Amino acid sequence: MTRQKTGMMELLLLIFLMAPLLPILHAHAGLQGTTITQALEIALKNNPTMKSVRAQRDATEARIGEAKSDFFPQIVVTSGYTRYNAPNIIVPIHETGVFPPLDNDIYE
Q1: CA-CA distance, 8 to 17, in Å (whole number)?
Q2: Which of 7, 8, 39, 87 could tie 107 with a disulfide, CB 3.0–4.6 Å?
């Protein structure tokens, strides 16, 4: 649902739920001189059910954005470094399958 349709649905729901309470709000809440439109706006802004609906809508829109993000390119950068204190022994191999004996004098 688009935001405009959701806003219209919220307003209609609020009018339906709050219409019987408007005379009471007007008389007891000190809303002298407040129009019905202003009273509806105040009620819509402070109604816990409407706050919950707006929070759920925002969460749904965030999940949609998260799902769309899988289609965007991603960059992954990794690096590593290893340092050995002992030198590596290098032994030349002259024939295939024949390994020479280790020599303690040949180092990298």
Answers
A1: 14
A2: 87
The Cα–Cα gap between 21 and 17 comes to 8
pLDDT digits (tens, 9 = 90+) for 59-102: 999 999 999 988 888 899 999 887 777 666 666 667 777 766 66
How would you label 43-69 residue by residue, b for 16+ Cβ within 10 Å and e otherwise? bbeebeebeeeeeeeeeeeeeeeeeee
Contact at 8 Å (CB) between 50 and 10? yes
Whether residue 53 contacts residue 70, with contact meaning beta carbons closer than 8 Å, is answered with no
The model's pTM is 0.37
Q: How far apart (Å, rounded) are the C-alpha atoms in residues 74 and 10?
A: 38
